[in-house]
TrEMBL record:
It comes from Anaerobaca lacustris. Its EC number is 5.2.1.8. GO terms for cellular component: cytoplasm. GO terms for molecular function: peptidyl-prolyl cis-trans isomerase activity. Gene3D superfamilies: 3.10.50.40. Also involved in hydrogenase metallocenter assembly, probably by participating in the nickel insertion step. This function in hydrogenase biosynthesis requires chaperone activity and the presence of the metal-binding domain, but not PPIase activity. It is an enzyme of class 5 (isomerase). Its main location: cytoplasm. This is Peptidyl-prolyl cis-trans isomerase.
Length: 144
């Protein structure tokens, strides 16, 4: 039976659990995620765990925060005057924004506080600072 190797396109089901017990799925509605092994679309530790698997096989992988989304960085929390928001945006806590950064880059941020005059955004990845336990099942090797 074929085993996953570097460069293969794979389709997996993958559920995650944080150390506080919260669970999440990588795909909406518990569906599958497709990616190329070694292409960098997934966490490297998760990609490595899939190498060598055969269709139908499942594994549990613990990814420490330093190999997942890194530590939380309080410097990535920023206060933005509401007057600087584009017209027509009604900010709400939990809303995700794409904000311009230096060198034409974009930062994804989450609104964590809203007042009449400003919003506070968190530019950390939502899973930053978390160790993650993944349960991954290889559904299919799309190409060999």
């Amino acid at each position: 039976m074929a085993r996953v190797a570097e460069g293969d396109i794979v389709r997996v089901r993958c559920a995650g659990r944080l150390t506080d017990g919260r669970e999440f799925e990588l795909a909406p509605d518990g569906g599958t995620v497709e990616f190329i092994i070694g292409h960098g679309d997934m966490l490297p530790a998760l990609e490595k765990a899939v190498i060598g698997m055969t269709p139908g096989e499942s594994r549990t992988v613990v990814v420490p925060k330093d190999k997942a989304y890194g530590p939380r960085d309080e410097d990535r929390i920023e206060v933005i005057p509401r007057k600087d928001l584009p017209e027509g945006i009604t900010p709400r806590v939990g809303q995700r924004l794409r904000l311009p950064a230096e060198n034409y880059q974009v930062v994804n941020a989450t609104i964590i506080q809203v007042t009449d005059t400003e919003i506070v955004v968190d530019g950390n990845h939502p899973l930053a600072g978390q160790d993650i336990l993944f349960h991954v099942t290889l559904e299919e090797i799309v190409t060999l």
